[in-house]
Design goal:
single chain; 157 residues; mainly alpha; elongated
Length: 157
């Protein structure tokens, strides 16, 4: 239910708390419950913002998207750091799949974006033992890149 005073609810302090909670990883609906906000009021602010109506809601659509992206970025950074420990890397990827299934869960029918690029995997291959490297690849559930082709040397007797 939209309250008559919902336009005055969005103070700079409340807006900052809203964005901070989302940036820290709380789902938007949980954040609204925490702050005592009604979803209908936020939907109204988003609609007004998208329509270009100037008010305390101006820019909130972009700010919310940015806060969500910053949280996802923090998780990706954590997953990259955790590559040295396959157990933690697998946990970070599992959380990404759960929190952002449309981008990280291959079973949702979307192309899964991988945290580790082929270059990262190649660098890890050079630094880790074969067993450690195999654990990283297994934790990431990726196919290891093929080693660069080496020129065959003729065998002479």
């Amino acid at each position: 239910m939209v309250r008559d005073d919902d336009d005055e609810l969005l103070t700079p302090e409340l807006r900052a708390r809203l964005l901070e909670s989302v940036r820290e990883g709380l789902h938007v609906s949980t954040t609204l419950d925490l702050l005592g906000l009604e979803w209908e009021s936020v939907e109204r602010w988003l609609s007004l913002d998208r329509a270009g109506v100037v008010g305390p809601w101006s820019g909130i659509t972009v700010d919310l998207r940015r806060a969500i992206a910053e949280h996802e970025r923090a998780l990706v950074i954590a997953a990259n750091v955790a590559l040295a420990d396959p157990k933690n890397g697998k946990l970070a990827l599992a959380y990404l799949r759960q929190r952002y299934p449309d981008r990280w869960d291959a079973s949702q029918g979307q192309a899964m974006r991988m945290v580790a690029t082929e270059k990262v995997l190649e660098a890890l291959r050079a630094r880790l033992t074969a067993i450690e490297y195999a654990r990283v690849v297994d934790a990431l559930q990726v196919d290891p890149p093929k080693p660069a082709a080496q020129e065959a040397t003729p065998v002479t007797h």
